[in-house]
Design brief:
Number of helices of chain B: 0
Helix content of chain B: under 10%
Shape of chain A: globular
Largest sheet of chain B: 7 strands, mixed
Oligomer: heterodimer
Number of helices of chain A: 0
Shape of chain B: globular
Distance between the termini of chain B: 37 Å
Largest interface: A-B, 23 and 22 residues
Number of strands of chain A: 10
Strand content of chain B: over 45%
Number of strands of chain B: 11
Strand order of the largest sheet of chain A: 1-3-8-7-6
Structural class of chain B: mainly beta
Distance between the termini of chain A: 37 Å
Radius of gyration of chain A: 13 Å
Helix content of chain A: under 10%
Structural class of chain A: mainly beta
Strand content of chain A: over 45%
Chain lengths: ~110, ~120
């Protein structure tokens, strides 16, 4: 069964804008991971955030985790056309949500 | 960074053919590898967990006799789709987790697009 559920399903933004997507999950976790998938390709690991962490940064990416609400968010700042992809969250149970498809318009 | 190689990238074959997909971890050892299936515009669905030296663990609803998994070494797992039919057409993705300890992220192959005619 799916553990992570992303929201929104799709997002279209202008280059330079920020993109925010959310992930909700159902049970307790040890960690939560965000991945990116370009069309027709495998997934690329972006960030892993542990259950005792609240926020984590990696370059233009910022991930938050709220274990009380069982939710996480991924923020991409100053988006680029190359950020166009689908983004998935996954809990340590290896269950992926349906993903958020992000389109960055030049 | 960690690299997982998946081969072939795409396969087109006739109904009834068996197809083998390889997943290799190139620069790390993986006692555990995972096989996923993804339909267009949908999420990854875990099919099975491949354990080196032992039988794979299949998710509910996945036929183990249909999808044969072999994990003979710490760097190679194979998925064989036996007697494939058009409904088996899909995008299959493998991943591997470094054996180095808990909390390690998965590293994914680039996927295999399987089309059964």
């Amino acid at each position: 069964s799916q553990q992570g559920e992303e929201d929104p399903q799709a997002l279209s933004i202008q280059e330079g804008e920020n993109a925010t997507m959310n992930c909700s999950y159902k049970t307790s976790i040890n960690n939560l991971q965000w991945y990116r998938q370009n069309s027709g390709r495998g997934l690329v690991h972006l960030i892993l955030i542990r259950s005792n962490e609240r926020e984590k940064h990696s370059g233009r990416l910022r991930v938050t985790l709220d274990t009380s609400k069982k939710s996480s968010s991924l923020l991409i700042t100053a988006s680029r056309a190359a950020d166009t992809a689908s983004y998935f969250c996954a809990t340590d149970e290896l269950s992926f949500g349906a993903g958020t498809t992000v389109t960055v318009r030049a | 960074g960690a690299v997982v190689s998946q081969h072939p990238s795409w396969v087109i074959c006739k109904s009834g053919t068996s197809v083998k997909i390889e997943c290799r971890s190139l620069d790390f050892q993986a006692t555990t590898m995972f096989w996923y299936r993804q339909f267009p515009k949908q999420s990854l669905m875990l099919m099975a967990t491949s354990n080196e030296g032992s039988k794979a663990t299949y998710e509910q609803g996945v036929e183990k006799d249909k999808f044969l998994i072999n994990h003979a070494s710490l760097t190679l797992s194979t998925l064989t789709v036996t007697s494939a039919h058009p409904e088996d057409s899909s995008f299959y993705i493998c991943s591997a987790r470094d054996s180095g300890g808990g909390g390690q992220p998965q590293h994914f192959g680039d996927g295999t697009r399987l089309s059964i005619l």
